[in-house]
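ok so i was messing around last nite and threw this chain in just to see what happens. nothing serious, just curious
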Amino acid sequence: MKPFASASGAARLVAALAVTCLMGAGPALCAGSLAVTMREYEPAAAQLEKSRRKVRDHKGVEAPDEPAVRPFHKRPRRSEPLRRRLCSICHGPWPHGKSATARAFLNMHGRALTCTVCHLETGGRPVSFRRLPPPQGAAEGEEGEIAPFFGTEAQVVFDDDPLFSELERIWEGGALEEKARWHAKVHGPLRKRPRRCRDCHGRGAKLLDLSVLGYGEAEIRALETDRRARILDMYEKRKKRLRLRGLLD
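result:
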């Protein structure tokens, strides 16, 4: 039997972290390196089958260098981030594409947050949220992304990690079984459902301490009262049916 194969997803995640420390990893890794956790994670048969289907059905997202219609809004000088995250190997720089209503709002968060802020399963472990150092080549005054931390270890895998280049090679030329196995291992430490907009944007939201992250009083007030976040949560909760009266409350 494979290690953790009979346990639940959350139990296998905790077990993978425990094995990392028992094998003699240093304090940073014992604090929860995401790359190591993914390597140690052993998916169950049902997860592997689900990953096979997803890999077979995967359709890449490609965006033209220049849009067919001149955009009304000012476009940023840089269309892609200076450092790539592991998720972008399969999902590209704009990973949210299922919902035509929500995708623009969700994708624009990629400049301020790592994917794991909304998608990481903590397994009941204490987690904090901090800013990463700005990437090399960032403009003066540009801040790093917000990321979840276990201890001193940021829970994100960038393109300077060996796991990134390994998975990029597998995704480009690996066999179906190899792709499916790594798809399941990478998604094993993630939540089944992402966090909701109101976890960060509602009044009294507890996920992020916005003042510690450097936001001023006016910015915090704007983020906490952003009506778009409430509308998007309502859109998902009501299965994409909204009434005008509900939007004006």
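not much to say yet. Strands lie at 128-131, 146-150, 153-154.
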